Each structure stands twice: as structure tokens, then as C-alpha cells.
């Protein structure tokens, strides 16, 4: 396989020769339309409305969490607009790695892809952790059994993937629809129980419960707003994974931007509803700030223990939707990096019948389980709430790094490739990219101000540095001219996605 290259620097990388059989063993199948992509975007995140976000109430109170969610929501609108422009112009399955590879070279591509890899491996792991907490509460199993729920969940996911990603995506779509309906049902039945002043404003400046409510909107001031930002991120985090399905979309240049914008607007509406109704009914914001299953606690208030467990069983669907969608995104990220040689190429071989990257999916699942078990045995089994916050903080760290690099890639793509076709253009332009970078840097900085979760960010950074070392000393001499690489090396003259006509 040969192409004519431009004089652009290659960043000190070497490409190995492969034949057509290499790519024949690594094909995906196009089958996803607009509705499927929209629901995949929502499904990737909807678990964040069920668990994890609520820890932000303990960091900033209701007002701090509300402002944090609005700031982060605006950032995601800007980010999704930038990604929409890039995904329509570069419809490869590599997603963020593809954008950065074209704009920032091989080192920039891998640096961005690795950040997404950490995020997408851990995000479904965190969803599995929260789902196990719900299942343990429903079935009355002790916390010591949580690792068994994790293993069972990943086995179900891998079993489903063997049947093919087309079927898997259909399952995720309908589970996502059910998960959204559960949230809307919660909003309706919670309405008669709302007492905003008494329950949402029941956190004092000392962090203790204000029994009769009427506490301050910002009990911890602007510092509380900043500390709540990472947990606001969790209400939207992973929607940006959607471009990883580009080579499975029927019309990615048209449908991907629409699906991304529809997804983030849907998630913002759900996030604000979840925040308001969960905090405004008993037991209130103070208790919700440390809950492992906030939606279940809300249903307990409304229906009592028995019915709450039944409804929580339905609520598990939301966590399952994000778990499956996130696991598949993790597989696609590993698949694209492997196909281009940044990771061992064997990981990108797909099933010859279903065209499913099963090896990549299993690899992502294995890494997630290793991290879950490591955190569990290093202290999580004695403090489940701490483990939840630790996972969220690791994911947010990787996500912020990825968003900064994608925004830089957006700015450089506009400058380096002004003439490539852009079926969609971000209405926020350069301002949206700069706003995203600023908010991400702010969020990253305040992660290190939180003594409880500082080590989570350090752990994610260590993973990041190990991955960069692996690339620098070994993999950069074994790259492959995949469609993303070919597009970048040829200056955009070659390298359309496989199967695109």
C-alpha cells in the first residue's frame, strides 16, 4: 500500500507496510441513522443523571452545583459544535484521535487518543460500579459482593457484542429510550413533594445539615462552584464519543452533527431536571450529596421501600444504557488506535461475520475491571462513596485533557485546512474552542485543590505518562497508514473512511 506524501513532518514516526488483507480483517458495517446516533449520544451519558453527579452537592451546595452544571453545559455546547464541524469534515471512526492526528501530527493524535482511551475505559467501569450499587440495594446483597456484579455485567456486555454491534446498538437505543422515560416519570411524580427552600437549601456554611432549610444558595462560595465542576462534567461526559461510530453511520457527514447537538441539548434538559427534583424532595441536598443511588432514594421518598425497589430495577436501565454504549466506545477507540498501529495491531481484528471489534472490546473490559478491583482493594471496599468520587475524578481528568486537545485541533484544522469540505460549521467558531479550553483548564486546576480526589487526577496522569512512554519508545516505529493516517500524511488528498462511497 503506497500513497504520495506531502512535505509535512511526520513527527519521527515510521510506517510499516501492510497489504489489503490487513484492512479486510478490520472492517466495520454501516447501519446507524440519525435517531440511532441521537440515542447513542444520550445513552452514552444518561447514567450520569442517575449517579455520580450528586457528589457535587456536597462540594458546592445546590447553588454551587447549579452554577457548575450551567458552566459545564455551556462548555459542552461549544465542544459539541466544534466536534460536529470536525466529524463532518473527517468522518473516520478514530474520532478525537483522527481530528488531532490531522491537525497536530502523530504525537498530538496519540496524546488525544490516549486521553479518550482512559476516559472511555473508565467511564463504563464507573457506570458498572453505580449499576452494581443499585443492584445490591435492590437485591439486598452486601457491598462485598460488588466485584461479582462488575464481572457479571462485563460478561453480559461481551456476550451481547458477539451477536454484532448492529444488534447491540439497537438494544442500547431502546434501553436509552426507557431510561429517559424513567427520568421524565420521576420528574412528574416528584413534583407534589417539592419544597425547594426546605430541602434543596439545607446545607450550611459548615457543611452540616440545616434542618429547616433556608440555608445559603452558595454555602461554600465560589470555591464550592469550582469544586462542583468535575461533578457537573459527569452529567454530560462521554457525549463526545459519538464520532467513534462514524464508520458505522449511514450518512456521517449529515447525521453526526445533528445527533451531537440533539444529544447535548437533551442531556442539558435532563440534567437540570434531575438536579432540581432530586435536591428539592426529602431527604434533600445534604443527604443526596453522599448517596450511592440518588434516584432510588428519590423513589423511596415518593413510593416507599417496596415500590422504590421495583422502580429502581427499571432505573438500572439508564446505567445499563451508558455502560453498554461506553463499553462499545471504548472498543472503537482501541480499535482505531490499533488499526493505525498506536496499539498492538491484533487488537483491531474484527469478527469476519459480524464485523465487530471483539478483541478491542474485551481488552477495554479487562482494563476497566483491573482498575475497579485495584481501587476497591486500595480502600474502596471500606468507603464506597470515596470510590465513586475517585472514579469520577479520574474520568474527568482524562476528559478535560481530551477536550483541550480537541479544541486546539479544531483551531489548527481551520488554519491548516481552510479549503476542506465542511458540511457543518460551528456557530461558535474560535470563541467556542477558546471557551472550552478555559473552562477545562479551570476544572483541571480545581481537581488538584480537592484533597480527597487529588490522588485520582494524579493516578490518571500516571496512566497517561506510561502510555506516552510506550508510544515514544516502541509503537511510534510501527504505525500503519489507516484512513486517518493516510488523510493526515497526504494533506487531505487521500484517506476517506473504509466503505465510504
UniProtKB/TrEMBL annotation:
Keyword list, A-Z: Membrane, Transmembrane, Transmembrane helix
Where would you say this protein principally sits, based on its record? membrane
* Domain of life according to the entry: Bacteria
How does the record say this protein sits in the membrane?
A: Multi-pass membrane protein
* Localisation: Membrane
> What InterPro entries would the database entry show?
AA-permease/SLC12A_dom, APC_superfamily
Q: What is this protein called?
A: Amino acid permease
A Pfam family cross-referenced in the UniProt record is: AA_permease
Task: Name the species this protein comes from.
Answer: Labrys neptuniae
Q: Outline the extent of the Amino acid permease/ SLC12A domain.
A: 43-476
Annotated transmembrane regions: 32-53, 59-79, 120-140, 146-165, 172-194, 214-239, 260-281, 310-329, 359-378, 384-405, 426-446, 452-473
Amino acid at each position: 500500500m503506497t500513497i504520495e506524501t506531502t512535505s509535512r513532518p511526520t513527527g519521527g514516526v515510521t510506517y510499516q507496510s501492510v497489504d489489503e488483507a490487513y484492512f479486510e480483517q478490520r472492517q466495520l458495517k454501516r447501519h446507524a441513522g440519525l435517531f440511532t446516533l441521537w440515542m447513542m449520544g444520550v445513552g452514552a451519558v444518561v447514567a450520569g443523571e442517575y449517579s455520580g453527579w450528586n457528589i457535587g452537592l456536597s462540594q458546592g451546595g445546590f447553588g454551587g452545583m447549579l452554577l457548575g452544571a450551567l458552566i459545564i453545559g455551556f462548555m459542552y455546547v461549544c465542544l459539541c459544535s466544534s466536534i460536529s464541524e470536525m466529524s463532518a469534515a473527517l468522518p473516520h471512526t478514530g474520532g478525537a484521535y483522527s481530528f488531532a492526528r490531522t491537525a497536530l501530527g502523530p504525537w498530538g493524535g496519540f496524546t488525544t487518543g490516549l486521553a479518550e482511551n482512559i476516559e472511555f475505559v473508565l467511564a463504563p467501569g464507573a457506570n458498572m460500579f453505580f449499576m452494581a450499587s443499585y443492584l445490591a440495594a435492590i437485591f439486598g446483597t452486601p457491598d462485598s459482593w460488588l466485584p461479582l456484579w462488575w464481572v457479571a455485567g462485563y460478561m453480559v456486555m461481551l456476550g451481547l457484542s458477539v451477536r454484532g454491534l448492529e444488534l447491540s446498538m439497537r438494544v442500547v437505543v431502546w434501553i436509552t429510550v426507557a431510561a429517559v422515560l424513567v427520568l421524565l416519570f420521576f420528574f412528574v411524580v416528584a413534583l407534589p413533594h417539592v419544597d425547594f427552600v426546605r430541602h434543596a437549601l439545607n446545607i450550611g456554611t459548615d457543611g452540616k445539615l440545616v434542618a429547616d432549610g433556608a440555608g445559603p444558595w452558595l454555602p461554600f462560595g465560589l470555591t464550592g462552584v469550582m469544586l462542583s465542576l468535575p461533578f457537573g462534567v459527569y452529567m454530560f461526559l462521554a457525549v463526545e464519543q459519538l464520532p467513534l461510530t462514524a464508520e458505522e453511520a449511514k450518512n456521517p457527514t449529515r447525521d453526526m452533527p445533528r445527533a451531537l447537538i440533539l444529544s447535548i441539548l437533551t442531556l442539558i434538559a435532563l440534567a437540570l431536571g434531575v438536579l432540581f427534583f432530586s435536591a428539592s424532595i426529602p431527604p434533600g441536598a445534604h443527604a443526596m450529596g453522599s448517596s450511592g443511588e440518588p434516584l432510588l432514594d428519590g423513589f423511596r421518598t415518593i413510593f416507599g421501600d417496596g415500590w422504590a425497589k421495583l422502580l429502581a430495577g427499571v432505573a438500572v436501565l439508564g446505567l445499563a444504557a451508558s455502560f453498554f454504549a461506553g463499553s462499545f466506545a471504548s472498543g472503537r477507540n482501541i480499535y482505531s488506535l490499533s488499526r493505525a498501529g498506536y496499539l498492538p495491531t491484533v487488537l483491531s481484528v474484527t469478527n469476519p461475520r459480524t464485523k465487530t471489534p471483539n478483541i478491542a472490546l474485551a481488552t477495554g473490559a479487562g482494563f476497566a475491571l483491573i482498575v475497579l478491583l485495584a481501587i476497591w482493594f486500595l480502600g474502596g471496599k471500606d468507603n464506597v462513596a470515596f470510590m465513586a468520587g475517585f472514579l469520577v475524578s479520574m474520568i474527568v481528568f482524562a476528559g478535560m485533557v481530551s477536550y483541550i486537545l480537541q479544541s486546539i485541533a479544531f483551531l489548527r484544522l481551520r488554519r491548516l485546512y481552510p479549503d476542506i469540505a465542511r458540511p457543518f460549521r460551528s456557530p461558535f467558531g474560535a470563541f467556542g474552542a477558546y471557551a472550552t479550553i478555559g473552562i477545562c483548564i479551570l476544572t483541571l486546576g480545581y481537581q488538584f485543590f480537592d484533597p480527597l480526589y487529588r490522588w485520582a487526577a494524579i493516578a490518571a496522569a500516571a496512566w497517561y505518562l506510561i502510555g506516552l512512554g510506550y508510544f515514544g519508545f516502541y509503537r511510534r516505529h510501527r504505525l500503519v497508514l489507516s484512513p486517518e493516517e493516510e488523510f493526515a500524511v497526504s494533506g487531505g488528498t487521500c484517506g476517506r473512511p473504509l466503505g465510504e462511497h
